[in-house]
């Protein structure tokens, strides 16, 4: 059963070493992420699953101790997922690497951790099914759900400007802040893909996990500093 969820964005720029001189611009976002993860710890889960958007090659399960690397972003930094151990050969994808880094900032040791890469193209029905499977896997499951909103908020955004981006992000913010399962389930897959919203599949997996859980939500932070929608929320 799902007992709590934290929703955080996953740009590598969250890691100060990657952001370098621009790091202070995201300080408030980082602080909100830490607050959201604190809600997970307070729920006393017996299992934490970290969901992160990936391409097809990066999808699937990653055990505790898997290593995330930021070398691809010009920084010689590695971080394990949860408690360090014997690391498997497969490295964490970028989104889960950011999740591992966020957990390291909280010294997470409240429950065993597993990472799960969710293909951004995963259809809605499969996302919901995946969430149900996760929630049924342990008596008290917590989720750290990673993903960004539209990448088309400004002309300098990665996806350039699209007038649909801001209304889409407003819809997502309302759904995440209100723990609105129906609204998350209803997110349009094609629209999300067109707006380069990486979080859609993970949010719909969360909707599946929360179907039988009476949870309330709170939006802790919403911003789009680089033309990309970032949201931080906590469900408990």
Helix content: 25-40%
Report the count of strand segments. 9
| Structural class label | alpha/beta
Number of helices: 8
Enumerate the spans where pLDDT stays under 50 for 5 or more consecutive residues: none
What count of domains describes the coordinates? 1
**CATH fold-level assignment:** Protocatechuate 4,5-dioxygenase, Chain B
Proportion of residues in extended strands: 15-25%
Characterize the overall form.
Answer: globular
CATH superfamily label? LigB-like
CATH class: Alpha Beta
Radius of gyration over alpha carbons? Answer: 16 Å
Q: Would you list the SSEs in sequence order as H and E?
A: EHHEEEEHEHEHHHHEE
Distance from N terminus to C terminus (CA atoms, Å) equals: 12 Å
CATH architecture: 3-Layer(aba) Sandwich
**Biggest sheet character:** 7 strands, mixed
> How would you name the oligomeric state of the polypeptide chains in this document?
single chain
Q: Mean pLDDT, as a whole number?
A: 96
Strand order in the largest sheet: 3-6-2-7-1-9-8
Organism: Streptomyces glebosus
Protein name: Extradiol ring-cleavage dioxygenase class III enzyme subunit B domain-containing protein
């Amino acid at each position: 059963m799902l007992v709590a969820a934290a929703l955080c964005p996953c740009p590598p720029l969250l890691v100060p070493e990657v952001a370098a001189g621009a790091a202070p611009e995201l300080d408030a976002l980082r602080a909100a992420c830490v607050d959201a993860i604190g809600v997970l710890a307070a729920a006393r889960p017996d299992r934490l699953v970290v969901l992160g958007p990936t391409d097809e090659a990066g999808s699937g399960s990653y055990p505790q101790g898997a290593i995330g690397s930021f070398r691809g972003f010009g920084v010689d930094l590695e971080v394990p997922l949860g408690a360090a151990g014997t690391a498997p050969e497969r490295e964490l994808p970028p989104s889960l690497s950011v999740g591992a880094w966020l957990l390291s900032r909280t010294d997470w040791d409240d429950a065993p951790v597993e990472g799960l890469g969710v293909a951004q193209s995963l259809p809605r029905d499969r996302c919901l099914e995946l969430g149900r499977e996760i929630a049924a896997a342990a008596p008290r499951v917590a989720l750290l759900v990673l993903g960004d909103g539209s990448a088309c908020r400004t002309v300098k955004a990665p996806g350039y400007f699209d007038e649909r981006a801001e209304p889409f992000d407003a819809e997502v913010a309302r759904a995440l802040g209100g723990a609105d399962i129906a609204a998350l389930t209803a997110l349009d897959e094609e629209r999300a893909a067109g707006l380069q919203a990486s979080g859609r599949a993970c949010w719909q997996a969360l909707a599946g996990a929360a179907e039988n859980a009476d949870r309330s939500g709170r939006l802790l932070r919403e911003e789009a500093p680089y033309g990309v929608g970032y949201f931080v929320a906590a469900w408990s």
